Amino acid sequence: MTGRALAACQVSASYGSQRVLDRVDLHIAAGETVGLSGPSGSGKSTLARLLALLHRPDSGHVSLDGAAVTGTRHQVPVAMRTRVAILFQSPRAATDPRLTLAEIIAEPLRATGTPAEQARERTAELADTVGLTTDLLTRRPHAVSDGQLQRACLARALVHRPAYLLCDEATAMLDASTQAHVAAVIGEYQRRHSAGVLVISHDAALLARWADRVVDLS
Amino acid sequence: MTTTDPLLAVAGLTVRFRLPDAVVHAVTDLHLDIRPGELVAVVGESGCGKSVLAHALLGLLPRNATVTGRALLRTDSAGSRSGSAGSRGGSALARGGDGAAPVDLLACPPRQLARQVRGRVVGLVPQSPATSLTPVRTGRRLLVETLRAHGHTGADAPVAADRLAVDVGLDPADLDRYPHELSGGMAQRLATALALAPDPPLLLADEPTTGLDRPLVDHTLDLLRRRCDAGAAVLLITHDLAAAQRVADTVAVMYASRIVEHAPTEALFEAPGHPYSAALLDALPQRAFRPVPGHPPMLTDLPAGCAFAARCDRATPACRVQPAFTGIRAGQVACHHPLERAELCAEVPA
Fold first, then answer.
1. Do residues B221 and B269 share a domain?
2. For residue B2, is it within any domain?
3. What is the DSSP string of B94-109?
4. Do B184 and B205 fall within a single domain?
5. How close B68 gets to chain A, by Cα (Å)?
6. For B122-141, what is each residue's pLDDT tens digit?
7. How far apart are CA A172 and CA B285, in angstroms?
8. Is residue B178 within 8 Å of B141, Cβ to Cβ?
């Protein structure tokens, strides 16, 4: 495989004695949208977590733009880690309830030592991109809807301009309008940055519409 | 659809939440009838007031809520169904004999709601099962306890529990797990089984398919449909338009605290009458996959007149006045400038 791509190469993963992935290959090229479907428990989320460098494969490896990644999480160099972002299904479980939406969006910037002024500008710019009003940015998760919180999570995922975005059932609990909006924001980002996108969903109609090709993991 | 009298007749339901510095207009002047054997879906964007509707009917709102209007629940039919699934629970309100006066759920004393209505006559499939299951009991204990409280004998209840588990798509062996050992989807199915156990004549299902994959979503929806076909009435609250399309007889579209259109399912999906319904359907991936333009208004700061006017390309100065709408029966649209079908349906007598 050549060119810029995020790829899982013959990866296996298990939880205890439960094997969920057995020598799986998946290739997401820059600019491409790959759909991933499969029944509950087929390992879709585990594969996304492997690709996001959050979970260590039992065997096989993840390759990022041609380089094999060793280790997970903080063991991976920041410059590599920030090239892959993940958007989870439940924004409530993926945000700190004590932070305001603005702080949630800016968290990855703070973690990498971006100056405050620059971080504020970038946060405002992203809030505008995902359709969050200034009034909402000062609220905490309990005071906004799931849809609004997921938009904040999307802004947070895009904050370091990742080359690859992994969406794990990221629109499953959203109404049709919010889902279409989130998909449109991701599509626009992808065109502008030639990003690779993985869309995990149970919804065949959504994948048919959104993805360039669909991989079934069953 | 049946032509019998409504089991539940909601008229002018209005819910307000008082906050320190604002008032949330959660539900405004809502009219809705549900007949036995009928499945009515309420759809809308998140935060439009859908779930508050279910909680208001069950008296489960927090203290800062003010509720006005009426929700009359017929109690005679509740008794007539009680033998259908080996449950006495349904007759709890009808012990005074058939033809008992309807109960106004909004004016019902909390004690009566708790002892005679909730669970027994009006069941709720909750939105977040993780917070509604007792964490220190296994699924089997929860289910058997519920079945015994609703008339199953000691020996019969465990058998009925297994049967219910299979009905909702759970492996009976999973009933021996504690709630924290269940996945989100399994907990959702257990919560559904608990709601179905007393065989209530009216079932409120608040996002019953959250966290389930498509085959299980369809399974749960078909289960609700079968309850309807056996004579129960179901109010399905969902953001999933495909779910509503699959099983509902009629669909009520809710926007910014009001029902803006209530139509037979097929008519709504083929030719929506309200511009908002049309825009929402256009957002589906099967259709234009285009979000509704603009943002929904804050429920603390609703505009005068039609709340959708700011996002609507058909809006005129007339829209500054709230459109007249009492959509008790299907086929009505709360709009000054409805799309084609509404004009046809307006001629159908309510």
1. no
2. no
3. GTT-TTPPPEETTTS-
4. yes
5. 25
6. 999 988 777 889 999 999 99
7. 13
8. no
B228 and B299 in a single domain? The answer is no
Query: How many residue contacts between A and B have a Cβ separation below 8 Å?
Result: 72
Residue B295 in tokens:
């943002």
Residues from chain A that touch B281, judged by Cβ atoms under 8 A, are: 176
CB contact under 8 A, B213 and A40: yes
Q: Is B251 on the interface with A (CB under 8 A)?
A: no
On whether residue B28 sits in a domain, the answer given is yes
Q: What SS3 class is residue B283? A: coil
The whole-angstrom separation of Cα B231 and Cα B245 is 20
B244 with B259, same domain: the answer is no
pLDDT in tens, A197-213: 999 998 899 999 999 99
Would the ipTM clear 0.90, i.e. be above it? no
Tell whether B165 is covered by a domain. Answer: yes
Looking at the structure of chain B, the number of domains it has is: 2
Parent domain of B286:
254-346
Instruction: Indicate which CATH number applies to the domain containing B164.
Output: 3.40.50.300
Q: What is the pLDDT of residues A162-207, one digit of tens each?
A: 999 999 999 988 999 999 999 999 999 999 999 999 999 988 999 9
- Judging contacts by C-beta atoms under 8 Å, the chain A residues touching residue B239 are 173-176
Selection from B60, B155, B114, B59 nearest residue B147 by Cα = B155
Residues B242 and B264 in one domain: no
